[in-house]
Amino acid sequence: MKVKNNLLSVVIPAFNEPTLLERQLKSILCQTYRPIEIIISDDCSPNSIEPCIQSFASIIDSQVSIKFQRQQINLGVYWNFKYCLNQIKGKYVVFSSHDDWYIGSNFFSDAINILEIENECDIIIANAATQNTNGNNLNGVMMDLYTDELDNSGWILLEGKYFIANHLYNKLHPSYSSVVMNWETLKRYNYLDYFVDKNILLQNKKNINFQPDEGFVCINLLAYDGKVAISGKVVSVRGTPLNSWSRTKFWTKSAGLGLFIPNFLLLRFYKENGFKNGVLLMLRNLVFMHPVRSFNLSILKFLNYEMNAILIMSFSFLYYYLPGFIKKILHFLLRRFKKNFR
Predict the structure, then answer these.
(1) Which label site among 174, 215, 281, 338 has the fewest CB atoms less than 10 Å from its CB?
(2) What 3-state DSSP class applies to 233?
(3) Which CATH architecture has domain 8-253?
């Protein structure tokens, strides 16, 4: 008797561009894996995507469902994503941008098969192409791991701590559309507690001068105490429309502030669990890779004005305004220290 498959939740925070969403939905429905629930939140788009959702009504059955919500006010990318997370019912989850799309039909099935077989593995990362470029997200990592062609479709299991320390923030920048995760494990790690309450950041202000970022928290949590399965096979395309969030000046300017909270919370997590390479990695991210442009009291309030947070933000702020040649010297010293530390 065939064992019943576990539900897969595909999360899509969306804004405008119904044509791109339609392409993404078609590519998801071409996947052979069932059952699937697709969770879509329209972040109060001026150009409503609801007609696009209605056009897929005929495919709703016991194996496919679409949960749709149109927000009454614009939440912003981060909080719209957080809303979607609170709707998840599946054992497994994929976070997907509405302007991405899938290639082929077996990625979900192949990924979940590995998650079911490998008890220590809670996360699958495949390769993704970037629209209108020749680049793929995992090519640098595949060059290190494979001895044959980059399009090799085999899966490699890596120890999670090694993966975090050597790959995640170096040559690898995964596209979430090509990542399948165990949602039940994320909940055990209290993943949703890593998200910021918007009211705390506002503090009676009308606007926030940055928007938080998820910051690969989910990948860190799932990889930390287990294994990661990765493949060089391209399974999705990362969309890059001209009006995408990652192209905006606001996103670029607020990157350091947006990543400060997730990186600091991960630093705290790694410190509590004695993972020294993880602590060093987060310190590098906080100070050298994503320095803050301004000193932000709202962030420090969220972090309960912890002294380490104040000190790190101070160093990060000072580093941002250092002359370029001093930054190069510090980067060189950091690499040497990291090499000797290992």
Answers:
(1) 338
(2) strand
(3) Alpha-Beta Complex (3.90)
